[in-house]
Amino acid sequence: MSKVKILVDSTADIPPQWLEEYDIGVVPLHINWLSGATEDDSRDVLELKDFYRRLSTSHEVPKTSQPTPGEFRKVYQQLEEQGYDEVMVFCLSSDMSGTYNSAMIAKGEVSLPVHVVDTKKASGVIAIVARYARELLNNGLEAKKVVKKIERDLAEGKHNAIFYVSDFDFLRKGGRVSRFQSFVGAMLKIHVAIYIEHKVGMMVPFKKVRGERKAQIELVKKLIDMWPEGSKIRVLMVHVENEEGTERILELLKEHFDVEYLGTSPMGKIIATHVGPGTAGFAAQLMEG
User: Fold this and answer.
1) Strand order in 30-32's β-sheet?
2) Please, what is the Cα angle at 216 between 211 and 219, to 5 degrees?
3) Strand, coil or helix: what is 289?
4) pLDDT in tens, 226-284
5) How far apart are CA 136 and CA 90, in angstroms?
6) Are 114 and 89 in contact (CB under 8 A)?
7) What's the whole-number average pLDDT of the chain?
8) Inter-axis angle of helices 212-226 and 243-256, to 10 degrees?
9) Per-residue pLDDT at 79 exceeds 70
10) 177-186 pLDDT, tens digit each
11) Which residues fall within 8 angstroms of residue 12, CB to CB, at 6 or more apart?
12) CA 97/CA 104 separation, integer angstroms
């Protein structure tokens, strides 16, 4: 049986315990501050909390950058040295980042068979996909068939990422809204509900509401629009310093779906940089049967 390593990039927002349990590796993206300081994305809880604090108090929103082909090539070569026969790589949407392109370029520079998938998603969806890939491998499906199965599921919209953004001042600092919009949004406690469209692979705002409770309801209503109520689904909750928000969303999801709760994960530095503190939401997988 082929020994297969699964890789994700660090936007996956993957629970740390899954890395060992499902033999998943992480290739980090990078944070670049205007001051010249740089750092890698990280799943370390204390490091994340410190980053959230700096993100909230800074006058600037840092830039983000993808791993280079050379970084991917180095990881592939190390895995070959460790005795792996094949590698699967699940990447952030190519419409959001050049990470997928870097992984593909590096694939052509090594002899080890590498399968690279553009998930057209981000955050917890990538984590769920990676876990599911390992489960399929463990059930005896060969790597190429696993990749085809997952690519088909992604194209058919069987994976969704839905969340809301809370901090309008953060959105202003990132250049996404004007100072006036930020002032009004904060004053009215407006939350923006967003999902990642699976065909274009981009974040799409679909609702602006006053109050966090209304935002949570809108997320669940959006999933009901996509999948039949009562469907069996898996969910991974994700947030930036708003675990309480995810708990309320999970309660609402359970009222409408047959939910297998996979856990809750803080969003990593890269995703947090784009959505800001107070964000809460979920990744979901529509199960068969």
Assistant:
1) 38-40, 30-32, 63-65
2) 130
3) coil
4) 999 999 999 999 999 999 999 999 999 999 999 999 999 999 999 998 888 899 999 99
5) 15
6) yes
7) 90
8) 40
9) yes
10) 334 343 334 4
11) 26, 90, 123, 124, 126, 127, 130, 268
12) 13
- SS3 per-residue string spanning 52-119: HHHHHHCCCCCEEECCCHHHHHHHHHHHHHCCCCEEEEEECCCCCCCHHHHHHHHHCCCCCCEEEEEC
Whole-number pLDDT of residue 178: 39
Domains annotated for the chain, with CATH where assigned, are 4-29+66-155 (3.40.50.10170), 159-286 (3.30.1180.10)
Task: Measure CA of the first residue to CA of the last residue in the chain; give whole Å.
Answer: 28
Mean pLDDT of 71-92: 98
**And the tokens for 145?**
């068939």
Closest CA to 247 of 267, 233, 263: 263
List of E strands, the chain:
4-9, 24-27, 30-32, 38-40, 63-65, 86-91, 114-118, 159-165, 190-197, 202-210, 232-239, 258-266, 280-286
Rounded distance between C-alpha atoms, residue 32 and residue 63, angstroms: 5
Beta bridge partners of 115: 88
The pLDDT value recorded for residue 167 is 72
